[in-house]
Amino acid sequence: MSNRVTELFGIRYPIVQGGMIWCSGWKLATAVSNAGGLGLIGGGSMYPDVFREHIRKARAATQKPFGVNLPLIYPQVDDMVNIVIEEGVRIVFTSAGNPKKYTSMFKQQGMVVVHVIANQKFAVKCEETGVDAIVAEGFEAGGHNGMEETTTLALIPLIRKSVKVPLIAAGGIASGRAMLAAFALGAEGVQIGSRFAASEESSAHTAFKQKIVEARDGDTKLTLKSIIPVRLIKNEFVRKVEELEARGASREELLELLGRGRAKLGMFEGNTEEGELEIGQVSALIDEIRPAGEIVEEIMREFHQAKQELAGEKF
Ligand code: NDP
Ligand code: NDP
Q1: Is the dihedral of CA 43, 47, 53, 56 positive or negative?
Q2: What is the distance, to the nearest Å, from the Cα of residue 23 to the centroid of all Cα atoms in its chain?
Q3: Per-residue pLDDT tens over the stretch 146-177
Q4: Rounded distance, CA 72 to CA 78, Å?
Q5: Which residues have C-beta within 8 Å of that of residue 201, sequence separation ≥ 6?
Q6: Would you call 69 helix, strand, or coil by DSSP?
Q7: Which helix (H) or strand (E) holds 71?
């Protein structure tokens, strides 16, 4: 299949694997790229030297295009930007911050730059800064999330009418049917996180992957809104946050409970009660840990099948 997103990245299918902290190492990124999608290395959880190592390993493991995700609130973002340029990475997705400064730096290097947003205002700003494409991520998504709580169903058409650049939909998408729905709303590609977090190649701990498989509807919650909204699986840590919030705790008290490295504790070290487990609502639909390449193939098969079925419907 060919459209503006496949052409922009030089890939076969318009499926981008989210650059998720603690899940998206080089193994996952290259498994997705080798299957025809676009794999991303999630830089947010990596120290600069680890990040460089993952880029090099990815280059050795695939001939296909791959990219990196850089959250702009990362503590040593300038070091990471230099590594991306030094290592000759061609595709960068930025998130969680203002893309103005870095987009022009990356564009000077001839790179493809994509930024992740969750509302109309930032989508318009992004286009003005010269990004090549936008990821619009809805309320259903796992991990860090927009303040506005706009769902993917409402967000995608809104962003579609607000910008001209290629649009990649994210949040709540884990199947070919959901991908087709996103295309019906005006997206030209999808970014998928949760489904790949529970893949064999994800670097997350097996205990976290198992929690994703077991999750049912209602098992995730957008929490910590007074610090930074993040969708997590409900566990002992989330219950402690709720208790504090119910008592009207201050931001400082919540920050003290959060401490440092909660996401690593839950997602990488497998402490599923005390750690942060960042995952989307669509985890309710995920019931098996599978190889990432098979996931890509299945999504595309279902996408085409659902498209044919709809074309044959008599409305
Ligand atoms: P590598 O073995 O090539 O890992 C390279 C380096 O990156 C290691 O230092 C690794 O940490 C670290 N790393 C891997 N993924 C991430 C990430 N998403 N964010 C930040 N740092 C990361 O590649 P893989 O990551 O694919 O393999 C990791 C290995 O670790 C596997 O063999 C897996 O079984 C194992 N693992 C162990 C866990 C644990 O809690 N003990 C949890 C998850 C995976 P490190 O040296 O700590 O693995
Ligand atoms: P914390 O401050 O609680 O902990 C920092 C964690 O990041 C530690 O586990 C640490 O590993 C690891 N780390 C990797 N590189 C660095 C570095 N250069 N300096 C300090 N710590 C580093 O942060 P969080 O776990 O909540 O978030 C980590 C990062 O992920 C942030 O940059 C955050 O913005 C980003 N993030 C982005 C998301 C998105 O864009 N959608 C979603 C979620 C997080 P160690 O314990 O080994 O020291």
Answers
A1: positive
A2: 10
A3: 999 999 999 999 999 999 999 999 999 999 99
A4: 9
A5: 27, 28, 31, 291, 292
A6: strand
A7: strand 66-71
Pocket of ligand 1 (CB under 6 A): 22-25, 27, 42, 45-46, 50, 53, 57, 203, 205, 268-270
* Whether residue 315 has pLDDT greater than 80: no
Amino acid letter, 222: L
Give the number of other Cβ atoms within 10 Å of residue 291's Cβ: 13
Please give the single-letter amino acid code of residue 267.
Answer: M
* pLDDT tens-digit readout, 173-225: 999 999 999 999 999 999 999 999 999 999 999 999 999 999 999 999 999 99
Residue in the block written with tokens 């085409």: 304
At 172, list the tokens: 């709540």
- Per-residue pLDDT tens over the stretch 21-51: 999 999 999 999 999 999 999 999 999 999 9
64 vs 9: CA distance, rounded Å: 10
Q: Give the integer Cα–Cα distance in Å for 57 and 299.
A: 26
Identify the residue whose C-alpha is closest to ligand 1 atom 32.
203
Q: Domains of the chain (ranges plus CATH)?
A: 4-203+285-306 (3.20.20.70), 206-282 (no CATH)
Q: What are phi and psi of 309, to 5 degrees?
A: -60, -45
The angle subtended at Cα 90 by Cα 279 and Cα 128, nearest 5°, is 75
Region label for 41, one of left (φ > 0), alpha (ψ between -120 and 50) or beta (otherwise): beta
For atom 41 of ligand 1, the residue with the nearest CA is: 269
Measured at the CA of 64, the angle between CA 173 and CA 17, to 5 degrees, comes to: 15
